[in-house]
Specification:
Layout lengths: L34 H10 L2 E6 L13 E9 L2 E10 L2 E10 L2 E5 L5 H9 L10 H10 L3 E8 L1 H6 L4 H10 L1 H24 L5 E5 L11 H21 L3 E6 L7 H6 L4 E4 L10 H8 L4 E6 L1 H6 L2 H15 L5 E5 L10 H17 L5
Parallel strand pairs: 1-6, 6-7, 7-8, 8-9, 9-10, 10-11
Antiparallel strand pairs: 2-3, 3-4, 4-5
Helix pairs in contact: 1-12, 2-6, 6-7, 11-12
């Protein structure tokens, strides 16, 4: 990511070398179908240890509000409920899972709920750093440590349903801006604490894809995302860290805005048909400043034919290898509970071909 000479294109498969419980990825170390892939990933690819820190209660200390969570079963259904007591009333999220589907109520279901969040007294939250430090000491130079970090929009997105959120963004801008401003102030305190404690060096920033075209205009993207993410990135770089902006889907209309935020890298920046940014255009806009991290489609690794895997891998390496500042990676994963024999073979083929074609010594 610094643009220094290397012997081959780095390969990141998004597997942690030490598993940390999280809502997205299964424990691939205990899933037998993953075994041959895990072995090859750990031996032949480049590793980040991506760590999830608790944000407390909206980046406030858990002591600032009473929060309760419970899980139970009722007439064949699995139910979960979380409540947070605030000065303006109770916040409640609720999920019922049955064989016929999922019924869900988000924690922030309306603008009154948004006001309830903002009424929670702010007490700066300092998460426990022991696990991160233990993993860092155990891994040494085998992996680079990375922090998964939510920007203000991600804090809204992960606690409400997307459709009402986009309506509020368009029709209730003052309300949304107030929420984002408060979250920004809190998360900057949170981030500075982490940086002061030597946490890093890489930060994986999530949120920009939740308010970008075609869902909002480029100007709204600048107001809702870039205005907050740029100072987050600047603070990380001030501590000699690496800020990576995570952005799926269409990015063509706001790619220059993403670059102006000055992240060290963008992941995954997808070409058509999943995204809308042709590779040649992306290279021109990224210039020499930003590392591309991507972008073989995860679906290709899961369901593609051997020819598809080889064709996509060759095309990406041929397009981006000469430029440098490039880390080859899938666009997502590993989120499947079980890998099929096809998926296993595709992962192994991808890694072998990437190591063969990615050398800079030929």
């Amino acid at each position: 990511m610094r643009g220094q000479p290397i012997d081959r294109v780095p390969i990141w498969m998004l597997f942690n070398p030490i598993y940390q419980t999280n809502p997205w990825y299964p424990n691939y170390f205990t899933a037998s179908s993953y075994a041959p892939v895990v072995e090859r990933v750990m031996a032949d690819t480049d590793l980040f240890q991506r760590h999830w820190f608790s944000p407390g209660i909206f980046y406030s200390d858990p002591a600032s509000a009473r929060k309760q969570s419970k899980i139970w079963r009722e007439m064949g259904s699995r139910l979960s409920e979380t409540t947070i007591e605030t000065p303006r009333g109770l916040l409640t999220s609720y999920t019922r899972r049955t064989e016929n589907g999922v019924e869900h109520k988000a924690l922030i279901a309306n603008l009154d709920d948004l006001d309830k969040v903002l009424s929670i007294p702010y007490q700066p939250f300092h998460p426990d750093l022991a696990e991160f430090r233990r993993h860092r000491d155990e891994l040494g130079e085998r992996a680079m440590m990375m922090v998964n970090f939510c920007d203000p929009m991600a804090m809204l997105y992960f606690h409400c349903d997307p459709e009402p959120m986009l309506i509020w963004v368009a029709a209730e801008r003052a309300h949304i801006t107030q929420f984002l401003d408060v979250m920004f102030e809190r998360l900057m305190d949170h981030l500075k604490y982490l940086l002061d404690q030597g946490i890093g060096p890489a930060f994986f920033i999530v949120g920009s894809e939740f308010a970008s075209p075609p869902m909002v205009s480029p100007k709204m993207f600048r107001d809702l995302i870039a205005r907050y993410d740029k100072p987050i990135i600047e603070l990380i770089h001030r501590y000699d860290g690496f800020a990576i902006t995570h952005h799926h889907g269409p990015a063509r209309k706001i790619l220059r805005d993403l670059v102006e935020m000055q992240p060290a890298g963008i992941q995954p920046l997808e070409a058509p048909p999943v995204g809308d940014t042709p590779l040649d255009e992306a290279k021109e806009i990224l210039g020499e400043r930003v590392c591309l991290i991507g972008n073989i489609q995860y679906d290709t690794l899961i369901n593609g034919s051997p020819d598809q895997v080889a064709e996509e891998t060759r095309a990406i390496i041929q397009a981006w290898k000469p430029r440098g500042r490039f880390i080859l990676a899938p666009t997502a994963g590993p989120y499947q509970d079980t890998l099929s024999p096809t998926a296993v073979a595709n992962h192994l083929q991808f890694i072998a071909l990437a190591r063969e074609l990615g050398r800079y010594d030929d």
